[in-house]
Write the structure tokens for this entry.
Amino acid sequence: MSIKEEILKLKKEKDIVIVAHNYQPPIVQDVADFLGDSLALARQITQIPQKKIIFAGVRFMAETAKILAPEKTILHPVPSAGCGMAWMIEPEDVRRLKAQHPDALVACYINTTAAVKAECDVVVTSASALKIIEKVDTKKIIFLPDKNLGRWVANHFPDKEFIFYDGFCYVHNYLKPEDILDVKKEHPEAHVMVHAETPPEVWEYADIVTSTSGMIRYVEEHPEVKEFIVGTEVGMIYRLKTLFPDKDFYAVKRPMVCRNMKAITAEDILRSLKEETYPVHVPEHIAQRARAGIEKMLELTR
Ligand code: 13P
Ligand code: SF4
């Protein structure tokens, strides 16, 4: 029996659900019950009836799942698989910013630890940030930690004042216009989709700047376009090819690989199913405060 067959058999026998982010390795995507971006997966967690869920994604995603479903067992197969951006900010940094700008709303990207979320008013993802900021009355917003996503959101709200933090994603932040233009020379008809975590200097070369779910929607909404250049983590290319086998998707020239997303292997998923490794715990005093901001996001984007 192949490892894939073994996983499929065991998850059925044990009634364990596997949810996976769009950046997960192909084999993990293939065995997942639900695939999505960070917003869709957070929402999905609240709707899964099973008691045990394996979360194939980075640490903050598994923590978010546990915060939203504290009564369930959330298993994170590789607990050390964290997000480099989430590690760039500590709760003290948020408290310092709040002390400097007491009249501001604190919007924090979902790519943060639970302890940082506990300091924030509302959580956002790249797919939900515009909708959420549009709905809040506050004129002044502390947006953290991603400076690029923050700038992209701020560009849509010229009447609001934004305070940024100097965080970034090491996978997206170094994308350069040439990385796109070199591929565009080979495929001049291709539309360019880049993630909102990429830096502002590449946005003018993109047909759309968006989240991973936004890329799927863009392909759906442009049936006449046959080729796409994808400026985000490579796992997304596998996801897009699986969803749209008749279209061509090209990676940008710079390798975009999130080591921590790729740290979860099929063997880890199998062990997680067999040994129920490793349950996620978030201290209740942190979970309670972090939950408010996450639930606010789900409510404002319903
Ligand atoms: P999405 O919410 O667009 O899936 O992005 C999550 C992420 O970590 C991007 O690097
Ligand atoms: Fe974090 Fe970047 Fe990896 Fe996304 S791609 S999980 S932001 S390090």
Summary: The first strand starts at residue 16 and ends at 21. The radius of gyration is 19 Å.
